[in-house]
Amino acid sequence: MKKPIFKRIILKLSGEALQGKLGYGIDAVVTRSIARRIKEVYGLGVEIALVIGGGNIFRGSTAENEGMDRSTADYMGMLATVINGMALQDALEKEGVFTRVMSAIEMHEVAEPYIRRRAIRHLEKKRVVIFVGGTGNPYFTTDTTAALRAIEIGAEAILKATKVDGVYSADPMKVKNAKKFKKLKYIDVIKRNLKVMDATAISLCMDNNLPIIVFDLFKKGNIKRIILGEDIGSVVGGKD
Fold first, then answer.
1. Which of 1, 7, 136, 213 has the fewest CB within 10 Å, making it most exposed?
2. In the chain, which stretches have pLDDT less than 70?
3. Looking at the whole model, is its pTM more than 0.85?
């Protein structure tokens, strides 16, 4: 049997991943399905941390465009990620996976405060750690949170879950001739404005040589296949 090529990873999920076909909120069936896919990797002995967005509940950038103060909108978005993190925790624990939710915004009744050494200790004890509350600061996305936390905890890669099977030159759902990239340099993502992650997140990964693997979350078994070294999706950065 193949062995995992990573010991510790960050899985970045968008909030929209939890909404399924509802178009908003949290679809319990979809959330449970994602939990089962994470459990597959957990069963291989890989240390897993999750970063979840909040766009299925509240999107700060949209609220800002409608006239809301940017800081207020961003804090509201951070609170939405806490709700999503709790939903994922519940789904994972129903699958028998031990978890901890760690928030950059303190709310002791529902989540532990984020402390780097404690997070690493949870991972070493084979608990899945769910990072919520963003970085705790406005003006930073959950993509940047994923890059920052990955560097802090010594993750070997970020697995960026999307609705498509990799990085394309344009949105493949809108542009028929969009070209898929199997391998990209960090600087190419920034120059081409490819929207893999925001520029701050890409720069953090580039400065720390942290690879980003972009893949289709909804194709069953993809997370496990990546962990076992199969050529899935698109890779940004990493070793040549």
1. 1
2. 1, 239-240
3. yes
